From TrEMBL:
Protein name: Dehydrogenase
UniProt-listed Gene3D superfamilies: Dihydrodipicolinate Reductase, domain 2, NAD(P)-binding Rossmann-like Domain
Any one GO molecular function term: nucleotide binding
Organism the protein comes from: Tessaracoccus lapidicaptus
Domain of life the protein comes from: Bacteria
Span of domain GFO/IDH/MocA-like oxidoreductase: 127-236
Gfo/Idh/MocA-like oxidoreductase N-terminal domain sequence ranges: 5-114
InterPro entries in the record: Gfo/Idh/MocA-like_OxRdtase_N, Gfo/Idh/MocA_Oxidoreductases, GFO_IDH_MocA-like_dom, NAD(P)-bd_dom_sf
Length: 331
């Protein structure tokens, strides 16, 4: 049985990894690639490098992965929707909320599978964390903290750190907790002389009163990717660089000295580092999208969810500019 005919547009840093995975997963054949700027990483192999999305569509593809700069996502995505081609579009879904919503509506109107490439959702540590939170392992949730810091990636030129990096944390926080953002406050700075911000500190409220804090920047000399969820029974720490998940339990040893017991709150308990399988997140993302195109059960980041992430990111930027908290609409 022939595999799904897949195309790829955008052959830059992310495009090369998408090409590798499209060639590796079962049931998919990478049949066409396109990039008007050429193929700097030599990922096309024997395939000709096409110059436009129209040429890609003409190859008779079933779906296309879009890994171009964000500014081109809407134009390319709308062309694919009009042609009846499913699409996985890299994050952020579009340059602004309006464009993201137009994409989501176009794919929904055609009955197509449209997804956003928020790869962190497929990190093994976060996938395991979501299951444990859903199972009630932490009890009532109190707070989510994320830290996503590191040097500036020269490949990013058309968005700031909020839409490029904080978008990961917005999606993963809503997904692992199964809550929606309601209120957003943030501060941003631009220290590197670029048009866009390169550091953000955000404090947010999600449904059910859950608070979240996000520290994100391109100004740190080392990479850090941490998600910390604190709740009634302790704290989970997910390191998405290493895909490790650790649980710090609240202690169960009673404090018999009454005068101290009333001030202590929780106490230190057992620490458990979970042994979990660690498949490549991008591979898992591609497998889920393939299954969605085939009509199977799959966990994809829908374009509606991708648009919601852009909305929250724009609320962070607006909050920093206006010095006030911004409400975000119901999903």
């Amino acid at each position: 049985m022939a595999g799904l005919r897949a195309g790829l547009i955008g052959l830059g840093m992310m495009g090369r990894h998408h090409a590798r995975n499209l060639r590796a997963i079962d049931g998919v054949d990478l049949v066409a690639v396109a990039d008007p700027a050429g193929d700097p990483h030599g990922v096309a192999g024997a395939l000709p490098v096409l110059g436009s999305v129209e040429e890609l569509i003409a190859q008779g593809v079933d779906y296309v992965v879009v890994a171009t700069p964000t500014a081109y996502h809407e134009q390319i995505g709308l062309a694919l929707a009009e042609a009846g081609v499913h699409a996985l579009i890299e994050k952020p879904l579009a340059k602004d909320t309006g464009a993201a919503r137009r994409l989501a509506e176009a794919f929904a109107a055609k009955g197509l599978v449209g997804a956003t490439g928020h790869i962190e959702r497929y990190n093994p540590a976060l996938q395991n964390l979501r299951k444990r939170l859903e199972n009630g392992d932490l009890g009532d949730l109190y707070q989510v903290q994320t830290r996503r810091q590191g040097p500036f990636p020269s490949r990013i030129a058309d968005v700031g750190v909020v839409k490029d990096l904080a978008s990961h944390d917005v999606d993963l926080t809503a997904w692992v907790t199964q809550r929606e953002y309601e209120l957003v406050g943030a501060r941003t700075v631009s220290k590197a002389g670029r048009e866009y911000e390169d550091m953000v500190s955000a404090t947010c409220q999600l449904s059910g009163g859950l608070m979240s804090n996000h520290l994100v920047n391109w100004l740190s000399p080392t990479k850090e990717r941490l998600t910390v969820v604190t709740g009634e029974k302790g704290m989970f720490v997910a390191d998405t660089l290493t895909a490790d998940l650790t649980f710090y339990a609240n202690g169960l040893v009673a404090t018999t000295w009454d005068d101290i017991a009333q001030f202590r709150g929780v106490s230190e308990g057992d620490v458990t580092r979970f042994a979990i399988a660690k498949p490549e997140p991008l591979r898992t993302e591609h497998e889920n999208f393939r299954d969605a195109v085939l009509g199977k059960d799959a966990d994809i980041v829908t374009m509606e969810q991708g648009a919601r992430v852009v909305e929250v990111c724009e609320a962070m930027i607006e909050s920093a500019a206006t010095n006030r908290f911004i409400e975000v609409g119901a999903a």
